[in-house]
């Protein structure tokens, strides 16, 4: 089997949302001496691209998108150590601190977003649920984050998103991080009102937003 | 009235048993240490490290049987007190939306305390509504007065029972101080607690939170009126089947109910739900979907099995305008609920999955609520109603139009809508082809243009304003006056 064959097989295993097949094909590729970086770039990521397109035109549904992303994530757990060993670790797209705000215990949307961020090449620190405003800021400082991403489902806990942005301002850190907000209780207008840098109506669209924010940040620094 | 039943008695029992199994074998993750302590002390098995609480079936059975069969909402004016299920469909507004569709510009914006005052007045005047659950947040709330800025305009402008939640214990105590000032002291308030508390302490799947749980436990201990809603979302926080969603929601209802009875025996509760099936194309939240009606109908049967009042958030919509979708989602779902015997309907005024209040939608929902209440009355079957003497008197080929028998009943036999079109096409065209939303907004403006007689006297208002310095005005200024 030539290289093209194994890449096609990797791609198809992701499209099939079949974690076992993804892992077996990754093993097969590595055993055949294919570079781990190429397994990702030429095999798995093209598969995720197809999954994204299928999702956008409602050919597949959210659980299928998630299963493909989870399969990809399992493969990354095998591939990333190999890339590090060979010193070939590529740069991450960005560093994101993520969590659900104080008083709010809802995690499902946030967890979907974490998965999509990770499979899109971001490093994510997930602070979980009921996150105090200082935890967001301290973690962002600690890991030198590019983005702070906050979720809120309850309208009564929404204010926690504003609290973080206000506290960043008080500490003179507002321009250091891009802040994105989302979750069932949020709207674009709310995001604008509290001075967030971006808002997205769904986890899938939040990934596009993050790319834009990180790009914007790099641009403004240049 | 015989209720519509989607489940056989055996299926109801199976759902109950399955819920007991889930509580005993899977358990509930209880984040509040005080709740874990109470549950442990009354026979549940608590894992101190993980916070997981398992409920032995005999413990659940013992405590859930203590629940009384009715729950009363009290208002500033006792004439508006409502008890479920005895008083039939009790219609409540939808609550806590962050936004409002501006009644003048039609643009969605953050809601303020003035909006709450106007909505309170509107709800006070619309006969379909029984309880005002504070429809929006107040973006203009002064620092430290998040909840006061909602409850003060609500209570000031509405004699009907007012219901809402508070995010913190400090807010809860502030709101109760307001209630005590209104009724004339702590003792008087304990006699007539006019604030009706509501929380969602159960976070699906099978988790009990901290802040709401603390509020529910404290209010229960104090004997103040509080009830909770369970909110399982099939596909995301519950299995992707309707029965599976019912099991998760029922286990959650039993868990919080049992906790309340452990805190104080014979505490009134409501089996209230907002069960949904997510739209798995995107994961979208769909409270207006027909499955919510089916699930609420099934929960009403479970509630009858437990001998408690039933209902919840039913008749919400995903629509962003007061259009046909908004109407069919509210109409079809509330009809399912009412026919199944649910008597608490949290349905009024909200668009976009609880995100925005719309004055036109509120007036429309008033009309839907009145239709629901008419449906609840049923056929009113009886010998008199068979009207056999009248049929004989009119005889073949006669007319019932000019008869005393007709005149006596023509205002009550049928519900007479204010918004629904009943004229001819030419009449409608001559009137400028008014859409339902035009008529609904005109009705809202008509009501809000007059001074509100529900507002309390100046002396009381002065005492309140002195007690809470900097509190919002809380006046239902006519929307036109601001335009």
Folded structure, characterized:
The complex is a heterodimer of chains A (222) and B (483). Helices cover 59% and strands 11% of the residues of chain A. Chain A is of the alpha/beta class and 222 residues long. Chain A has two domains: 3-85, Methionine synthase domain (Methyltransferase, Methionine Synthase (B12-binding Domains), Chain A, domain 1, Orthogonal Bundle), CATH 1.10.1240.10; 94-221, Rossmann fold (3-Layer(aba) Sandwich), CATH 3.40.50.280. Chain A has a five-stranded parallel sheet with strand order 2-1-3-4-5, sandwiched between helices. In chain A, strand 4 (178-182), helix 8 (188-193) and strand 5 (198-199) form a beta-alpha-beta unit. The longest helix of chain A has 24 residues, at 62-85. The termini of chain A are far apart. Chain B is of the alpha/beta class and 483 residues long. Chain B is 45% helix and 13% strand. Chain B has an eight-stranded parallel sheet with strand order 6-19-18-16-14-11-10-9. A five-stranded mixed sheet of chain B has the order 2-3-1-13-12. A four-stranded mixed sheet of chain B has the order 8-7-21-20. In chain B, strand 9 (132-133), helix 5 (148-156) and strand 10 form a beta-alpha-beta unit. Chain B is globular. Chain B starts with 8 loop residues before the first helix and ends with a helix. Chain A binds chain B through residues 58, 61-63, 103, 105-106, 108-109, 112, 130, 155-159, 184-185, 187, 189-190, 193, 202-204, and chain B through 31, 96-99, 108-110, 137, 146, 165, 167, 203, 207, 209-211, 235-237, 280-285, 353-355.
Largest sheet of chain B: 8 strands, parallel
Mean pLDDT of chain B: 96
Rounded to the nearest angstrom, the distance between the terminal CA atoms of chain A is: 45 Å
DSSP, total strands of chain B: 21
Beta-strand residue percentage of chain B: 5-15%
Described by strand count, sense and barrel closure, the largest sheet of chain A is: 5 strands, parallel
* Widest sheet, order of strands of chain B: 6-19-18-16-14-11-10-9
Poorly predicted runs of chain A are none
- CATH class type of the largest domain in chain A: Alpha Beta
């Amino acid at each position: 089997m030539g290289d093209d064959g194994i890449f096609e097989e990797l791609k198809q295993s992701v499209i099939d949302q079949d974690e076992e097949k993804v892992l077996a094909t990754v093993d097969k590729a590595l055993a055949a001496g294919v570079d781990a970086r190429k397994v990702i770039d030429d095999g798995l990521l093209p598969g995720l691209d197809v999954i994204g397109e299928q999702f956008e035109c409602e050919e597949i549904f959210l659980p299928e998108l998630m299963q493909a992303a989870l399969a990809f994530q399992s493969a990354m757990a095998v591939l990333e150590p190999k890339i590090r060993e060979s010193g070939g670790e590529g740069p991450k797209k960005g560093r994101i601190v993520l969590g659900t705000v104080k008083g709010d215990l809802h995690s499902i949307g946030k967890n979907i977003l974490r998965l999509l961020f990770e499979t899109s090449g971001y490093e994510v620190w997930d602070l979980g649920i009921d996150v105090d405003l200082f935890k967001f800021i301290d973690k962002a400082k600690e890991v030198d984050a590019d983005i702070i991403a906050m979720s809120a489902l309850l309208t009564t806990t929404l204010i926690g998103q504003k609290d973080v942005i206000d506290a960043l301002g008080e500490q003179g850190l507002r321009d250091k991080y891009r802040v994105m907000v989302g979750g069932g209780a949020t709207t674009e207008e709310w995001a604008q009102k509290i001075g967030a840098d971006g808002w997205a109506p769904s986890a899938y669209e939040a990934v596009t937003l993050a790319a834009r924010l990180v790009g914007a940040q790099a641009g403004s620094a240049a | 009235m015989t209720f519509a039943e989607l489940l056989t008695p055996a299926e109801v029992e199976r759902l109950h048993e399955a819920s007991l199994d889930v509580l005993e074998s899977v358990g509930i993750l209880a984040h509040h240490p005080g709740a874990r302590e109470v549950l442990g002390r009354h026979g549940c098995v608590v894992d101190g490290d993980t916070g997981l609480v398992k409920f032995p079936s005999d413990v659940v059975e013992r405590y859930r049987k203590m629940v009384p069969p009715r729950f009363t909402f009290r208002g500033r004016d006792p004439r508006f007190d409502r008890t479920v299920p005895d008083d039939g469909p009790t219609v409540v507004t939808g609550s806590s939306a962050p936004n409002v569709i501006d009644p003048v510009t039609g643009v969605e914006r953050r809601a303020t305390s003035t909006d709450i005052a106007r909505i309170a007045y509107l709800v006070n005047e619309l006969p379909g509504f029984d309880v005002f659950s504070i429809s929006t947040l107040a973006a203009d709330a002064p620092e430290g007065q998040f909840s006061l800025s909602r409850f003060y305009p609500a209570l000031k402008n509405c004699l009907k029972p007012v219901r809402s939640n508070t995010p913190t214990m400090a807010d809860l105590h502030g709101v109760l101080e307001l209630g005590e000032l209104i009724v004339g002291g702590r003792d008087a308030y304990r006699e007539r607690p006019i604030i009706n508390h509501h929380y969602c302490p159960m976070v699906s799947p099978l988790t009990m939170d901290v802040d709401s749980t603390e509020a529910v436990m404290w209010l229960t201990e104090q004997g103040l009126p509080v009830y909770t809603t369970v909110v399982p979302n099939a596909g995301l926080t519950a299995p992707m089947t309707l029965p599976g969603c019912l099991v998760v929601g029922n286990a959650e209802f039993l868990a919080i109910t049992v906790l309340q009875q452990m805190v104080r025996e014979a505490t009134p509760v409501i089996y209230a739900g907002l069960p949904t099936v997510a739209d798995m194309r995107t994961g979208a939240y769909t409270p207006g979907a027909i499955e919510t009606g089916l699930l609420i109908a099934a929960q009403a049967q479970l509630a009858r099995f437990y001998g408690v009042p039933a209902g919840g958030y039913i008749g919400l919509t995903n629509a962003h305008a007061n259009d046909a979708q908004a109407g069919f989602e509210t109409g079809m779902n509330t009809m399912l609920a009412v026919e199944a015997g649910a008597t608490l309907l949290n349905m009024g005024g909200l668009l976009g999955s609880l995100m925005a209040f719309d004055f036109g939608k509120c007036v429309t929902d008033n009309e839907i609520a009145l239709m629901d209440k008419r449906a609840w009355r049923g056929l009113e079957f009886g010998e008199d109603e068979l009207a056999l003497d009248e049929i004989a008197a009119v005889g073949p080929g006669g007319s019932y139009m000019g008869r005393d028998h007709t005149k006596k009943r023509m205002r009550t036999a049928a519900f007479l809508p204010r918004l629904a079109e009943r004229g001819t096409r030419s009449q409608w065209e001559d009137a400028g082809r008014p859409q339902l939303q035009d008529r609904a907004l005109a009705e809202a403006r008509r009501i809000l243009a007059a001074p509100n007689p529900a507002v309390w006297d100046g002396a009381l208002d002065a005492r309140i304003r002195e007690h809470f310095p900097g509190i919002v005005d809380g006046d239902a200024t006519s929307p036109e006056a601001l335009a």
